[in-house]
Amino acid sequence: MNTFPGFPGGKVKFTSIPNAFFSELLPLIDNLAELKVTLHIFWLLTQRQGSTPYVTLQGLLGDGTLLRGLQGQASSPQEALRNGLEQAAARGTLLCLVQAEGENRVYFLNSELGRRAWEKAQLGELRLPTGGPLIKPATPVSRPNIFVLYEQNIGLLQPMIAEELQEAEKAYPQNWIEDAFRIAAERNVRNWKYVRRILERWAAEGKDEGEGKVREKTWYTEEEYKKLIKH
What pLDDT does 129 receive? Predict the structure, then answer.
């Protein structure tokens, strides 16, 4: 195991990371390359102090520090880098534009400053490295995991429930989980126990896949749910 000698004393520089990274984004990241790439980009942009509010694929491919940290994550550090960037862009952490000539990609942090710079780049108001006109890359199709569904339909994820959500994701098909969250949201019962009961009932009694309908009594009404909780 490689060891770390510790942080130096005296006057040292720090990298600013929003609290939302730890409370909202970090619980969603399940790929080490994505995590390393995301943190490295935070560090790079902090060093630049807004003078260059973006990073480029070509620049990252030449970043020896980042590539050393990505060794062993894929068939090569370069592949791990590309994978990490794609994951971060698909998750919404990064905003991406492609320079058509040479296929160089330009990445902006999805922050207030980054979004403004991203918009200016598309309007030609922000000077970028040469490489041709900018185009928006195709958005990869990715199905949200159970943590994302929880945050979108119920609220901020609490650490104490994360393990239970992971177990449910292993136990039930992805489309069941999405449908259960949708039903709970439509009935305005934004509670994980309600979603879990839907899944448990489908597992016990079956789920009609036809036309997106579910069998009768595969969920509780809001009044029935209140009675259930009391018991």
Answer: 74
- Whether residue 157 contacts residue 23, with contact meaning beta carbons closer than 8 Å, is answered with no
Residue spans per domain, the chain? 19-135, 146-230
d(CA 130, CA 145): 37
**How far separated are the first and last CA of the chain, in Å rounded?**
52
Residue pointed to by tokens 């650490």? 159
Each residue's pLDDT tens digit, 50-65? 678 999 998 999 999 9
| Whole-number Å distance between alpha carbons of 175 and 110 | 29
Task: Tell me how far apart the alpha carbons of residues 162 and 154 are, in angstroms, rounded to a whole number.
Answer: 13
Q: Do domains 19-135 and 146-230 have the same CATH topology?
A: yes
Beta bridge partners of 108: 95
| b/e burial code for range 201-220 (CB count within 10 A of at least 16 → b) | bbeeeebeeeeeebeeebbb
Element (H, E) at 51: none
Helical H segments across 101-189, by residue range: 112-123, 146-153, 159-171, 174-186
pLDDT in tens, 5-43: 898 888 888 898 999 999 999 999 989 999 999 999 999
Query: What interhelical angle do 192-205 and 222-230 show, nearest 10?
Result: 100
- Residue 13 CA, distance from chain mean position: 28
Q: Where does 146-230 sit in CATH, by number? A: 1.10.10
**Residue 138: both structure tokens together:** 């195709």
CATH number of 19-135: 1.10.10
